[in-house]
Amino acid sequence: MKNDTVTTLLHGEMIEMRPPEWMVRAQAICNGGEIPWQAALTRALHALPHRESIAPDAPDGVEVVTWVIPEEGGHYVEFCTPQHILDAVWVSQKAEWLSFRAKHILPFLQAHAAVATANSLQRLLQHVVPATESQLPRHAPLPPALLQAAQWGAGR
């Protein structure tokens, strides 16, 4: 997590800015990792986050965590895996929220939903096909892009 800047959507452009006061408060509450970052942020904002996840219990799961910043402060969003925060963006203007959600959050979730589905199918096929290979009809192989997405999602 960066401490000196925050990626901010401002007037349709992503820029790096100094952290706002609420983020500085959260960093102080976090105190170098003694309190988890998201818990510190929730405490600093006095607001619970909204969570949207794809396969939250799977190793290839992802989550988008959003806090509404009080007093017209926009939204703060973190794109996460079970182990890491991949990216974070402060959408400082309320008017830009729906556009950001449509252009960034929904495609992120859709792409990971496709990867999670491909991974589930791949895992299922690995367990079913060897045991009953002679009984299954022959089908055309899966498209290379789908196989590649499944392998990427499985960490291969």
Overall description:
With 156 residues, this protein is an alpha+beta fold. 42% of the residues lie in helices and 22% in strands. The chain has helices spanning 21-30, 37-45, 97-132, 144-153; strands spanning 6-10, 13-17, 50-54, 62-68, 75-80, 85-91. Helix 3 (97-132) crosses helix 4 (144-153).
Identify the overall geometry: elongated
**Count of DSSP E strands?**
6
Classify the beta-strand content into a percent band.
Answer: 15-25%
Strand order of the largest sheet: 2-1-6-5-4-3
Give average pLDDT, whole number: 83
Number of helices, where a helix is a run of at least 4 consecutive DSSP H or I residues: 4
Uncertain residue ranges? none
Write down the Rg. 20 Å
Order of helix and strand elements from N to C terminus: EEHHEEEEHH
Amino- and carboxy-terminal Cα gap: 26 Å
Report on the biggest sheet: 6 strands, mixed
Helix proportion: 40-55%
Q: Helix- and strand-based class?
A: alpha+beta
